[in-house]
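User: Batch of two.

Assistant: Item 1 of 2:
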Amino acid sequence: MAEESKSVGWVAAMLALLVAYFGWGFLAADYFQHDPTGDAEKANFWINSVTQLPNLPGVLSYGFRERLWIVGLVVGLEVGVLILWLVLRKLEKELSR
């Protein structure tokens, strides 16, 4: 797909995925650092974002229990992306007239 034909919806969707990925990565790294089993040596953001996928329920539970501010921040950023998408879509329609 050519760069010129990327729609506003596609850009907003990619931005929403990026926000969700970084939110997950921060929660996974924090969960790994505070792992009660004691085998948390050194947290690496990129590695933990993948290796903690099998622990998805535990990471989300930890996030809602201990790091609610991260969850709130990610939700707020996702709402911001939604608002940006709505504004850009309206602007795109006005410019195409």
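Item 2 of 2:
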Amino acid sequence: MKLFIYFGLMIISLAVSLIIGRLQMKRTEKFWIPFLSGFLLNIAILGIGSIWWFLTETDGISRGLGVLYYCIAMGVIGVVVLIVLSVLKIKSN
């Protein structure tokens, strides 16, 4: 169950970042503000997830790798949000 929550937070973070970024881009028709808000939301969700994983895991290597994977996921999700929003921006023009 714990592993399901661990990977579920990554998927939730991706979905929420994309939805918030897309909705804000529709409202403002700008690019960087929706990207930054989606990316900062991504950092907040996975940052809280990192703290949760670090506090609940007992093995030191698992703690370190879990937080490292969340940091890698932050970067990957940021790139995905950037690409999706730029494609949506090009299609709207």
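The chain has a mean pLDDT of 94.
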